[in-house]
Amino acid sequence: MSLLDVDDVTVRFGGIVALDGLSFSIEEGHICGLIGPNGAGKTTMFNVVSRIYQPTSGSVRFRGKELLEVPAHGIAKLGIARTFQNLALFPTMSLLDNVMVGAHSQGKIGFGRAVFRVGAHKENVATRNFAGDLLHELGLGTWAFRPAMGLPFGTLKRLEIARALAARPSFLLMDEPASGLTHGEVDELAETIVKIRDQFDLTVLLVEHHMSMVMGISDRVVAMEFGRKIADGTPDEVQRDEAVIAAYLGSS
């Protein structure tokens, strides 16, 4: 059963067509890799799903309901979270506090009760414990109380994932998580993505240029070029597709 259905989505910025009638689906529990050369429209599609961009036309359904009617601040309540290519962390805050920020959308005490501290302490303790558990799961427990500033880039990438998981999502969008990582770190990241998919019962949409990682962990791959879908299938099928080979290597 599909979790996300993208149907004939078009995005225009003035005279530029960033997405041109794009359609694809993601089955629940799958890791779906979204690939394509620079300028293919991957980030635009990502931003449509995360409600940063409103498409010119088309439909995006999440669990059968129209996602395009939901404001950007409402998608976390639906169970959608994302990581960012350019880390959006708070450098002077501890790793634990950074992760706790990611859990704010799941707070239940409301503004009035928060002002008068009714139930706030109990909720804060629960959030803190959950954030600590996430840091330990991602191998970051040792640094829980130190600032994010100055830590290795690979460590900060894992912190970004932990913060996204703090929102308790069912659908995780990952924007080029391997960018800037060493070969060894990319291998560790691939294992981490599969691990958290299984452990937290996630569906993952992965935008990534690191082809060996995408092909190694994805259940399905959607390939794009110039805003259009040029291939959609298993990693093996997409790697053998002539249109995909031409898009990446050129054609004679």
Furnish the topology, listing elements before pairings.
Elements: E1 2-13, E2 16-27, E3 31-35, H1 42-49, E4 57-62, E5 65-66, H2 75-78, E6 80-82, H3 95-102, H4 110-115, H5 120-137, H6 153-165, E7 171-175, H7 183-199, E8 203-207, H8 211-217, E9 220-225, E10 228-233, H9 235-240, H10 242-249
Parallel strand pairs: 3-8, 3-9, 6-7, 7-8
Antiparallel strand pairs: 1-2, 1-4, 4-5, 9-10
Helix pairs in contact: 3-5, 3-6, 7-8
Task: Describe the fold and architecture.
It is globular, with a radius of gyration of 19 Å. It has ten helices and ten strands. Helix content is 38%, strand content 25%.
Q: What's the CATH class label? A: Alpha Beta
Tell me the count of domains: 1
**How much of the polypeptide forms β-strand, as a percent range?**
15-25%
Q: Topology as H/E string?
A: EEEHEEHEHHHHEHEHEEHH
Count of individual helical segments:
10
Basic shape: globular
Query: Total number of β-strand segments?
Result: 10
Task: Say what the CATH topology is.
Answer: Rossmann fold
Helix content: 25-40%
Average pLDDT level:
90
**Biggest sheet descriptor:** 6 strands, mixed
| Corresponding CATH superfamily | P-loop containing nucleotide triphosphate hydrolases
Short descriptors:
single chain, 10 helices, alpha/beta, four-stranded antiparallel sheet, 25% strand, 252 residues
Quickly describe the structure.
The protein contains ten helices and ten strands. It is an alpha/beta fold. Helix 7 (183-199) links the parallel strand 7 and strand 8.
